[in-house]
From TrEMBL:
PROSITE patterns: RIESKE. Residues 23-126 form the Rieske domain. This is Phenylpropionate dioxygenase-like ring-hydroxylating dioxygenase large terminal subunit. GO terms for molecular function: 2 iron, 2 sulfur cluster binding; dioxygenase activity; metal ion binding. The lineage of its organism: Bacteria, Pseudomonadati, Pseudomonadota, Betaproteobacteria, Burkholderiales. Keywords: 2Fe-2S, Dioxygenase, Iron, Iron-sulfur, Metal-binding, Oxidoreductase. InterPro entries: Cholesterol_7-desaturase (IPR050584), Rieske_2Fe-2S (IPR017941), Rieske_2Fe-2S_sf (IPR036922), VanA_C_cat (IPR044043). It comes from the Bacteria. SUPFAM superfamilies: Bet v1-like, ISP domain. Transmembrane segments: none annotated.
Amino acid sequence: MTTIAIHADPVDQLLEVGLKDLWYPICPSSFIKEKPVSLRRLGRKLAFWRDFDGVLHALEDRCPHRGAPLSQGVVLGDRLSCPYHGVEVRCDGVTTRVPGSPGCKLEGTRATRHFHVKEAAGAVFLYNSSEPVDEPPPLVLPEELTNDAEYGHFLCYTEWKGDYRYVLDNVMDPMHGTFLHKQSHSMAEGDSKAKFGIRATDTGFVFEKEGQRNVNFDWTEWGDTGIHWMRLEIPYPKTGGPGGNFIIVGSYTPISTGLAAVFHWRVRKLPKGWERDTWRFLYRNRLEQRHWRVLEQDRVMLEDMEPDANQHENLYQHDLGIVRLRRHLRNLAQQQIEAKQTAQA
């Protein structure tokens, strides 16, 4: 019998669990309350908890003693006490106490991987560093999520079955709005045979319909500011209330091979005051349900695609943005792999 060796693509393996040295959204802030929480993200099982001042911390969810889940332990301020044998691990990964063997070599060692976390725009963000760092780079989000004086937003969080990269492809495909979402109150117009072009920006690129603006889902922007995000606008009818176009900012995180964490912030540019209050009221009581229906159309379509669907494609001009983004991500992954090999050598 002949044995055929199958060699996995290291670039694909890295992309599957998420590129390193980037910020990623992990979950809504409301997920983490008084007790520790265990979440699988970015190829790891992570323990999150709040200390007595409400400050958020994150460790790999594995006790350095026997590998028990720290997330099932007791919060001792900036430390977690493992439920299995009481070993205490501080938020910086240092084992501070081993009750069963005081003074053993485990005490005082940084034997647990720790991660930097921040909260912003209603979500928890984690810096996925390739190696432990004392200070992470700043978390730089799009203006729509940080300029509270001019923008109002809602966080829409969900989890979709399938590879997170299919979600990226979906958002980098403005033309699907004209077909899949044609019954939507905000995406029923536009040329179904439009040509597309790619325009570079300071942080990435814009994939846009030529000669069509403010008609439908006309463009998608890809940005890299130390976190990868996507942005688009959908024109609103007058029934959508005051304000400009409906803005969506998205960021997507791998949970596992078959599950993705999907973050969409739904935004309008409105100053604080009655206009923003009016839109928020309309959104919560009338518009949110419509947007969930649109999102459900995407979810059903993507979840029903075969895992290897991207290996059987016949792409055309409308797919230039997807090709550009896939190539860019593969290049980033290759650079990280080569940098790691160089450092090891």
